[in-house]
Amino acid sequence: MIQPSQTFGPLLKRLLHPVFAVVIFLVFLSLAAGLRYGLIQQHTGQIQSNLENQARSMANSLEWEVIVHADAIRRMANRLTTDPQKPEREWREDARHYLRDFRIYQAIEWIDADFIIRWLEPLATNESVRGYNAAFDKQRRAALEAAKSSGNYDITGVINLRQGGKGIVIYAPVGVGSNNNGFIAGVFKMDMLARQVMASREPTMFQMGIRNKDDLVYTLSDFENASDSMSYTVPLSLPTLDWQLTVQPSPEWVDKQRSPWPRWTFITLVFMGLLTSLTTLLLQLILKRNQDLLITRQELDEEIVQRKTIQQDLVRLESTDILTGLANRRFFMDDLAHALTVADRQMRQVALVMLDLDRFQMLNDSLGHQFGDELLVQVAGRLDKLSDERITVAYSGGDEFMLYEQRVEDIDAVVYLLGRIKQCFEAPFVVQEEAHSVTATLGVAVYPQSGLDADTLLRNADIALYRAKEQGRNTYQFYTEGMQEREVMRLELEKDLSQALANNEFVLYYQPQLNINSGEIDNVEALIRWQHPRRGLLSPGEFISLAEESGRITDIGHWVVMAACRQLAAWKGTRFENLRVAVNLSGRELDDENLVERIRNALTTEGIPANRLEVELTEEIFIQNIEHNLGQLSRLHDLGVHLAIDDFGVGYSSLAYLRDFPVDLLKIDRSFITDVTERHDNAVIIRAIINLAHNLGLRVVAEGVETKAQLDFLKSHRCNLAQGYLISRPIPAAELERALTSGAFERTIMDKLEL
Ligand code: C2E
Ligand code: CA
Ligand code: CA
Q1: Residue 5: pLDDT band by 50, 70, 90 thresholds?
Q2: Whole-angstrom Cα distance, residue 465 to residue 710?
């Protein structure tokens, strides 16, 4: 599975950090600042050069202004030189022309050779300086003297004018050396001069400063906060003056010069930066979201996978039996139903086998549930080996298993399958360190002939199994149509059975047991018959198992004991008084806690000594519930009732119980007697049983004795009693009495037996 961290590389991870957006903004900010700085720098250069141009042009204007007026004054001086007698009135006229033409003069003066101001125009505003000595200090006198002798004009530099304010005076000598007749002087107020220079410009935009050498001698300023950083100084080329012009712009001018671009560039870039970083943040958010979604999706995927596995586990658990690990009945039935639809399409057959372990209940009861469970697990293990793509094996519950095979070709294939199942039981099962031979009985139903759906098929396989069990164990039965009828009959019988006792439909038949030694009959076995209102006389094989299943056997058994005791009571005082009657008890009857009490009651009610009654139990029943049975049978024995083991030799393999139970009699099973003369092994077994019984002090009955040869064999092996058709079939009491009275038994026996 891909981890979320693997999906996003470390680079991308870093790009997703919010700091990245901040970095982008900072980059833009510094770019903006840098660009702004560069642009401002560039503009400042531009402004500076603009200022230089302004300053140069101002300097040019100032130079021009001074030179023009200096020339004009010289011309006036030259006219006075050529016409020294020019009357004051004419000079004034001339001067007024100048004043009118050039409005920047403060005054035009004529100064005599002793430097005294004599004439001046306009008089009104300059009255105060008439008669004033222009050589008012040493320096001035020297300069004027020099101009007088050289004939060159002299410019004062900025001085404080007597008329007030600062100004300059340009002196042009009238004649050179000894011919000198004073000077024509032009007086200019600095403010006027400066404003003339500024005339074409906006005067409020610049501050003008004039330096003589390095001294600031004049300033014109209409504003206060001139920018210090911006100033430009131009040297002025004026005769006799070493002036420099310093121009400083007003902040307004500088601002006016400034371009809006640096600011706009800055704002734009910052804005762009902000936008970009916001976009980045947004993108990061989206990517983060995406990443989170991806992670959530992966987690969801994982969860889905987990849930699927859990679901699969659950399905498996639901379909599996926990103990055996095999498929359970529900799953099996679903599967079978599916297999049947497939078989229907393919026109194939399906064989369903129901399997029941023989004597399992007995083993389970006697050896414990732990044992039973272990045995079931082992059986399941062996059966499971049969399963493949065609065979499905399941545990049905109890001691029942079921399996089906698909695509069965013919009956031989089914028989082959049954053979394989049988093989599973060939080797003994080692449970709790002891080997046990276990067999199974099988019922088979084949689709489509034995049923068209899973349920019918299962029911019919069950019926077949039931029939097989009836036949004895360790065998199999195929379901046949007749079985169905028998099943219906069985169900009917079961219904009728509920009424049989009330309707008094049961009778006891008696089969005598011959004392081989004495040739007398002193024992009879009571065998029940059911006088069915429609079906006639039914043998116990047809209804005992039904009665056992429904639980009615307890009442029936009680009836048998009562009937036997009544019969014994009836025989009291007759020649049959000494007969002992054996009754058969089934396992279910033994479970009844009241059994002993009931028998005792029956005996006392009829006044019968207990030793007149014998109880036959099969080997199986004996050891089914050892603890419980031992108690019951001991109490019966204490009562004086005889105990016989019926069908001895076919059931339980262990003989240890013979030691523990208070047994009086062994009844060798009919199957050993039937072919005792043909089969050597059976003869050996019978001999062994007889010896064993005698050694334990028990008497032996052989049942199913039909031939003289059998009787001979039994006699020669000192068997105590013989029971069978050879002597008599089971017969009603009256018939028994008749036969006993007439000595019919003895006669037949005498005929057959050479006693
Ligand atoms: P079981 O106790 O082994 O009884 C002997 C059975 O063998 C009887 O069958 C009897 O008719 C039959 N039999 C006797 N001699 C011969 C012979 O020479 N050849 C052959 N082929 N058979 C012979 P039945 O009467 O049909 O009884 C069948 C079984 O039903 C009995 O077997 C017994 O287990 C059971 N049963 C009979 N009566 C009762 C009863 O009152 N209560 C209970 N719980 N079971 C009974
Ligand atoms: Ca019997
Ligand atoms: Ca028997």
Answers
A1: very low
A2: 34
Cis preceding linkage at 609, omega within 30: no
How many alpha carbons fall within 13 Å on the CB side of residue 687? 11
Total domains present in the chain: 3
Q: Report the CATH number at residue 645.
A: 3.20.20.450
Model confidence at 753: pLDDT above 70: no
Q: For ligand 1, what atom is nearest to the CA of residue 616? A: 2
User: Max Cα separation, the chain?
Assistant: 221
Question: Order of strands, edge to edge, in the sheet holding 215-220?
Answer: 215-220, 206-212, 241-249, 232-238
Are 37 and 172 members of one domain? yes
pLDDT at site 2: 43
DSSP classification of residue 102: -
pLDDT tens-digit map of 285-294 = 888 888 889 9
For the stretch 137-174, pLDDT in tens is: 898 899 899 988 988 888 888 888 888 888 999 999 99
What range does the domain containing 111 cover? 19-282
| Whether residues 406 and 503 fall in one domain | no
Q: Are 440 and 474 in contact (CB under 8 A)?
A: yes
CA-proximal residue: ligand 1, atom 15 (nearest): 724
For 235, list phi and psi in degrees, rounded to 5.
-70, 140
Check whether residue 345 and residue 414 sit in a common domain: yes
Helix/strand/coil percent split, the chain, to 5: 55, 20, 25
CATH number of the domain residue 246 falls in: 3.30.450.350
CA distance linking residue 668 with residue 686, whole number of Å = 7
Task: Verify that 383 and 267 share a domain, yes or no.
Answer: no
Ligand 2 geometric centre to CA of 616 (Å) = 6
Which ligand has its closest atom nearest to the C-alpha of 513?
A: 1
Same domain for 471 and 517, yes or no, is no
Residue 657 in contact with residue 637, Cβ under 8 Å?
Answer: no
Residue 585 Cα: closest atom of ligand 1: 44
What whole-number distance in Å separates Cα of residue 588 and Cα of residue 621? 9
Long-range CB pairs of 98-105, under 8 A, 24+ apart, other chains included: 98/72, 102/68, 102/69, 102/72, 104/65, 104/69, 104/188, 104/192, 104/193, 104/196, 105/69, 105/186, 105/187, 105/188, 105/192
Is the residue at 303 inside a domain?
A: no
Indicate whether 472 and 559 sit together in one domain: no
Output the DSSP codes for 191-230: HHHHHHHHTTS-GGGEEEEEEETTEEEEEE-S-S---SSS
273 & 379 share domain: no
CA of 627 to the centre of ligand 2 (A): 23
* 3-state secondary structure at position 234: strand
Instruction: Say yes or no: 460 and 519 in one domain.
Output: no
Which CATH number do you get for residue 396? 3.30.70.270
Does the pTM surpass 0.70? The reply is: no
Q: 304 lies in a domain?
A: no
Residues counted in the chain: 755
Cβ atoms within 10 Å of 9's Cβ, excluding its own: 10
Give the phi and the psi of residue 678 in degrees, each rounded to 5: -95, -35
Ligand 1 atom at minimal distance to the Cα of residue 548: 44
Residue 483 and residue 354: Cα distance in Å, rounded? 15
Q: Answer whether the bond into residue 260 is a cis peptide, omega within 30°.
A: no
3-state secondary structure string, 33-58? Answer: HHHHHHHHHHHHHHHHHHHHHHHHHH
Using DSSP's 3-state secondary structure scheme, residue 231 falls into coil
Best probe residue, ligand 1, of 501, 511, 527 (max atoms within 8 Å of C-beta): 527
pLDDT for the residue 220:
83
Q: How far is CA 378 from the centre of its chain?
A: 37
- State in Å: Cα 421 to ligand 2 middle: 33
Note the pLDDT tens digit of each residue in 412-431: 899 999 999 999 999 999 99
Q: What is the pLDDT of residues 469-501, one digit of tens each?
A: 887 778 999 998 887 777 778 788 888 999 999
**Omega cis (within 30) before 122:** yes
Of the listed ligands, the closest to the CA of 614 is: 2
Q: Are strands 183-189 and 105-111 parallel, antiparallel or unpaired?
A: antiparallel
